């Protein structure tokens, strides 16, 4: 399988690259700073570019089977600005499957079900900027023809892979407070061969 990974230099993205290479997939990573990727593997193609450049996105989509986006918000609008380019390029190339990393803030609220968590009292975060960015991406994907899955971790510390965690469609598992980067990456990666969460958000926590 040919997998395009966006955000490959980030915490989750870097582990996604490792999982895909371990399974002998062809991996393409579009990154602004190729020198940040220290992996030397004949199955890995690292391309310098920017997700905010439509031509760069179109260039890396050729021959791709699955797209995984682990782009983060970084306090800017890269996430929501790049997604229209990603969706258009995928639709033009006939690529159906995209798995993205979201945030638990865009899951449904249990206390106020007609709101998302970040819009309700359920969220303890003072700033909603990141959740608002992920919400825009959620809306864009819903309007697309793609087979999307948004993996929505809660607090995301580094830590060893435990291999056991709870997942729930559209909601954060009850009393879920954290999930390690490694387990988030593992679950996200597994979705390339799964149809269990097509066109759904998935809450993930211990």
Indicate the radius of gyration in whole angstroms.
Answer: 16 Å
Helix percent band = 25-40%
Order of strands side by side in the largest beta sheet?
A: 3-2-1-4-5-6-8-7
What's the overall average pLDDT, rounded? 96
Distance between the termini: 30 Å
CATH homologous superfamily designation: NAD(P)-binding Rossmann-like Domain
The CATH architecture name reads 3-Layer(aba) Sandwich
SSE diagram, text form:
Layout: E1 2-6, H1 11-22, E2 26-31, E3 44-48, H2 54-61, E4 66-69, H3 78-93, E5 97-101, H4 129-143, E6 147-153, E7 166-169, H5 181-190, E8 200-205
Helix pairs in contact: 1-5, 2-3, 3-4
Structure description:
The chain has an eight-stranded mixed beta sheet with strand order 3-2-1-4-5-6-8-7, sandwiched between helices. The mean pLDDT is 96. It has 206 residues and is of the alpha/beta class. The protein has one domain: NAD(P)-binding Rossmann-like Domain (Rossmann fold).
Outline:
The protein is an alpha/beta fold.
List keywords for this structure.
206 residues; alpha/beta; Rossmann fold; eight-stranded mixed sheet; 8 strands; 30% helix; 20% strand
